[in-house]
Amino acid sequence: MDNSIFLAKFWGWYLIIFFLILSLKPKRIKQIFNDLKDEKFLIISAFVAIIIGLLNIIFHNIWELNYKLIITLIGWFSLCIGLALFILPRRTISWLEYVNIKLVQVIYMLLFFIGLFLLNKVYGIVLI
CB count, 10 Å around CB of 57? Predict the structure, then answer.
């Protein structure tokens, strides 16, 4: 299976599932930010984000103006957030909290539509 197709399926389903969980259980968001105050959870989260970002970039660093660019940007975003959490944890957490408070609805809808877009590219649900 092509890396782009595999990662489009993975990130598409992940974003849809993440959107549904956060929509049905909005208290999870507050729980995540509370957990980030725990040093062990923070380090593990940073390492996981770095690993996921690196793997995504190594297997898929394609800068074409199509759905492949979204997959690449997700990998770079994950790597950058992971590094920021590891290097500047408090500043990064406060920035993430600020963005989450100001743009929570925009972010959730963006997650949902990006997930739908990626799944549509893979499965051809809606012909455009």
Answer: 16
Contacts of 94 (CB under 8 A, 6+ apart): none
Q: Which residues of the chain have pLDDT under 70?
A: 1, 127-128
Select from 108, 118, 24 the least CA-distant residue to 73.
118
| Total Cβ atoms within 10 A of residue 71 | 27
Give burial (CB, 10 Å; 0-12/13-18/19+) of 126: exposed
Q: What percent of the chain has pLDDT over 90?
A: 62
pLDDT of residue 126: 75
For the chain, what is the HEC assignment? CCHHHHHHHHHHHHHHHHHHHHHHCCHHHHHHHHHCCCHHHHHHHHHHHHHHHHHHHHHCCCCCCCHHHHHHHHHHHHHHHHHHHHHCHHHHHHHHHHHHHHHHHHHHHHHHHHHHHHHHHHHCCCCC
- Each residue of 98-108: pLDDT tens digit? 887 778 778 88
